[in-house]
Amino acid sequence: MLQFEAALWAQGLTAVAGIDEVGRGCLFGDVVAAAVILPRGWVLEGINDSKQLSEKKRNELYEEITREAVAWSVSRIDAGVIDRINIRQASRLAMKQAVLGLGLMPDHLLVDAETVDLDVPQTGIIKGDALSQSIGAASVVAKVTRDRLCAEVWDALYPGYGLASHKGYATKEHREALTRLGPTPMHRQSFLGNFFAVQQELF
């Protein structure tokens, strides 16, 4: 998990930032990105793609990462912007804002299969959250942040949709709630066209 970081550290680069996002495929809510700079040589046991970890493990890692990181930052882009500029551009914007929120400019970015629109040397790594400790750490911070928003904020704001359980993804529970209640202002309208077209065909 440190092969990419170690190669950069060997070049004398210390501020290596991992970047990742979560919520790209959701029907509801913000896409959330995180940027994390970990201490040189620090080993984080148990880190992996955040989706492969239990909620308990993610929360434990979140506390450790945010406590030990040299710097970390989270950025959110809401459904209105997603609808206006599309989800890929919104994800890239969230990543850019997360980097700018670190308080220092990294020497190098390690990014999960994307390019960040900043004039900073960077490496895009396919399945980076499972191959790079820094990207894995960013994945955990982004996912825990978004999951907590779903469970602690958005579920109370829009009861009846089951947001605390499905986190805005297109589960059976979520689709049934949409059919019954209709979309909220935080649903991504650009994602719902196909959903409602399919629903109409069924009735």
TrEMBL record:
Cofactor binding comment, as recorded: Manganese or magnesium. Binds 1 divalent metal ion per monomer in the absence of substrate. May bind a second metal ion after substrate binding.
Keywords, comma-separated and alphabetical: Cytoplasm, Endonuclease, Hydrolase, Manganese, Metal-binding, Nuclease
Catalytic activity, EC: 3.1.26.4
Localization per record: Cytoplasm
Reactions this protein catalyses: Endonucleolytic cleavage to 5'-phosphomonoester
Cofactor: Mn(2+); Mg(2+)
Residue ranges constituting the RNase H type-2 domain according to the UniProt record: 14-203
Gene Ontology CC terms: cytoplasm; ribonuclease H2 complex
Keyword Hydrolase in record: yes
Residues engaged in binding a divalent metal cation: D20, E21, D112
A single BP term in Gene Ontology: DNA replication, removal of RNA primer
Presence of the UniProt keyword Chaperone in the record: no
General function of this protein: Endonuclease that specifically degrades the RNA of RNA-DNA hybrids.
Family as reported in the entry's similarity comment: Belongs to the RNase HII family.
HAMAP family xrefs: RNase_HII_B
Protein name as annotated: Ribonuclease HII
Organism: Cohnella pontilimi
Taxonomic lineage from the root: Bacteria, Bacillati, Bacillota, Bacilli, Bacillales
